[in-house]
């Protein structure tokens, strides 16, 4: 959903509470036991809603609806819960998602379900203001502002003095005004209805609508439906080609604006040497190789942009001592990228070099950082300190080779650990680069995230080599005890 929907979702009406289900609603056609179960479900649903446990509330209301279909109180309460969970997802900050990612929850789906319940409620209670308010709320969350405005005007005919409907009328009118303000004198036939800018790398869907390639797939990260007509789309970046004819028409007729759009798009995929997108997950050290499963929509967008650029991103952890993004991180390069049918990406990455984060901000839901590259303070060539460092590195390398053989023998019953050790052995760098070798040495033992972050912050290669050897020796003592 766009920023317009997000801002609209912050101030909807009529969703602060649900309606109580009364004993007076008991029907003679229903047994006492069945009605008692229905009443208990509604009580549990209302209690969960008021405690902001909206998924639990929806589950209770749905069970109640199966017992008594088309009950207006059940429909109203479930519709309200759908809208509230949609609001929660739209308003959720990227920092919250980094600490506790959610999978499988889509605001567009919940808004669509809310709209269905609101329409059923309107058929049952055509003079109820709540049905007009809830239907307008659902349409606003679906970014159908014109339709929402029409529903609001119909509700005001029922009660011209309704404050909630008057508030919604002002908001939808304001949003529609902002949209129309950005349209240029040329025909909007060449505008993307998602970003409201000139189409760039246009794709035409099977249902006949055209969008910017990046805009369409950003929308499809949340729901695999056409953003305009809601038709289910079975397309992916690998199988969908840019509409060459439409693209040529746009380039020929609007060359200046097209050049601006190209520059804007290039800035998202090729950020420059001092800017890098961040994947907030864990501490990664140079000389590591790992696999990632990318399922969050904001990171799927980030990966697509990275793959169109230099295939590199930063991996960083939230510092447990401060609760903020750590000051140091590591650059990783995507060596393999497999898009999966459900929109996820399966990645293989190799860590490269570390950097310090000078500043960071949100861009389309993920973080981007301004950085400076960090290296150890190394002794000058042809000095005694340099010779001692190389000697220490060679001794550490000899110990590492014997340690790996002993470690592999000790891990014969643990296939996962054995695989890790074989992989690490294949990544062993040359001792002619002591800094890189010292990082590789620290990856051989399993260290806690805080310890790995401390390793990343070290600027003394000698200290890092000794640190790594100390923990290798401690692990070797553990084998002997066992």
UniProtKB/TrEMBL annotation:
RING-type domain boundaries: 192-230
Keywords from the UniProt entry: Metal-binding, TPR repeat, Zinc, Zinc-finger
Gene3D superfamilies named in the record: LON domain-like, Tetratricopeptide repeat domain, Zinc/RING finger domain, C3HC4 (zinc finger)
Residues covered by the Lon N-terminal domain: 273-476
Molecular function, one GO term: zinc ion binding
SUPFAM superfamilies, sorted: PUA domain-like, RING/U-box, TPR-like
Repeat positions for TPR: 38-71
PROSITE patterns assigned to the protein according to its UniProt record, in alphabetical order: LON_N, TPR, ZF_RING_1, ZF_RING_2
Alphabetized Pfam families for the sequence: LON_substr_bdg, zf-C3HC4_2
Gene Ontology annotations for the cellular component aspect, listed alphabetically: cytoplasm
InterPro entries per record: Lon_prtase_N, Lon_prtase_N_sf, PUA-like_sf, TPR-like_helical_dom_sf, TPR_rpt, Znf_RING, Znf_RING/FYVE/PHD, Znf_RING_CS
Protein name: LON peptidase N-terminal domain and RING finger protein 1
Species of origin: Heracleum sosnowskyi
């Amino acid at each position: 959903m766009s920023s317009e929907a997000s801002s609209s979702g912050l101030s909807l009406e009529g969703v602060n509470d649900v309606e109580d289900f009364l004993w007076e609603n008991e029907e003679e056609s229903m047994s006492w036991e069945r009605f008692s179960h229905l009443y208990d479900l509604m009580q549990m649903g209302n209690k969960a809603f008021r405690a902001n446990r909206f998924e639990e509330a929806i589950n209770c209301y749905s069970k109640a609806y199966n017992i008594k279909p088309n009950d207006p109180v059940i429909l109203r309460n479930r519709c309200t819960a759908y809208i509230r969970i949609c609001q929660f997802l739209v308003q959720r900050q990227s920092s919250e998602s980094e600490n506790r990612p959610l999978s499988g929850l889509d605001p567009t789906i919940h808004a669509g379900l809310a709209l269905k319940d609101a329409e059923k409620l309107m058929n049952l209670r055509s003079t109820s203001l709540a049905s007009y308010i809830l239907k307008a709320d659902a349409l606003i969350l679906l970014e159908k502002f014109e339709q929402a405005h029409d529903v609001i005007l119909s509700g005001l005919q029922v009660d011209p003095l309704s404050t909630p409907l008057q508030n919604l009328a002002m908001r939808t009118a304001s949003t529609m005004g902002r949209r129309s303000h950005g349209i240029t004198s040329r025909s909007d036939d060449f505008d993307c209805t998602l970003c409201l800018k000139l189409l760039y790398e246009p794709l035409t869907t099977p249902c006949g609508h055209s969008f910017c390639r990046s805009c369409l797939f950003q929308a499809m990260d949340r729901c695999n439906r056409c953003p305009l007509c809601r038709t289910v789309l079975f397309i992916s970046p690998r199988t969908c080609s840019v509409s060459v004819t439409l693209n040529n028409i746009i380039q020929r007729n609007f060359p200046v604006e097209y050049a601006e759009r190209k520059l804007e798009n290039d800035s998202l995929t090729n950020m420059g040497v001092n800017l890098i997108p961040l994947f907030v997950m864990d501490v990664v050290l140079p000389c590591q190789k790992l696999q990632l499963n990318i399922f969050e929509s904001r990171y799927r967008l980030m990966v697509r942009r990275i793959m169109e650029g230099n295939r590199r991103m930063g991996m960083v952890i939230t510092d447990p001592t401060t609760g903020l993004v750590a000051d140091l991180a590591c650059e990783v390069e995507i060596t393999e990228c497999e898009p999966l049918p459900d929109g996820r990406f399966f990645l293989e990455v190799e860590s490269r070099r570390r950097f310090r984060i000078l500043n960071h901000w949100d861009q389309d839901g993920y973080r981007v950082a301004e950085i400076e590259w960090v290296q150890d303070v190394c002794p000058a060539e042809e000095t005694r300190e340099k010779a001692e460092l190389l000697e220490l590195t060679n001794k550490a390398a000899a110990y590492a080779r014997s340690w790996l053989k002993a470690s592999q023998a000790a891990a014969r019953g643990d296939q996962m650990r054995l695989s890790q050790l074989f992989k690490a052995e294949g990544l062993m760098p040359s001792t002619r680069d002591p800094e890189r070798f010292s990082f590789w040495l620290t990856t051989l033992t399993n260290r806690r995230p805080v310890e790995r972050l401390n390793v990343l912050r070290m600027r003394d290669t000698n200290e890092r080599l000794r640190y790594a050897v100390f923990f290798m020796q401690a692990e070797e003592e553990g084998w002997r005890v066992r």
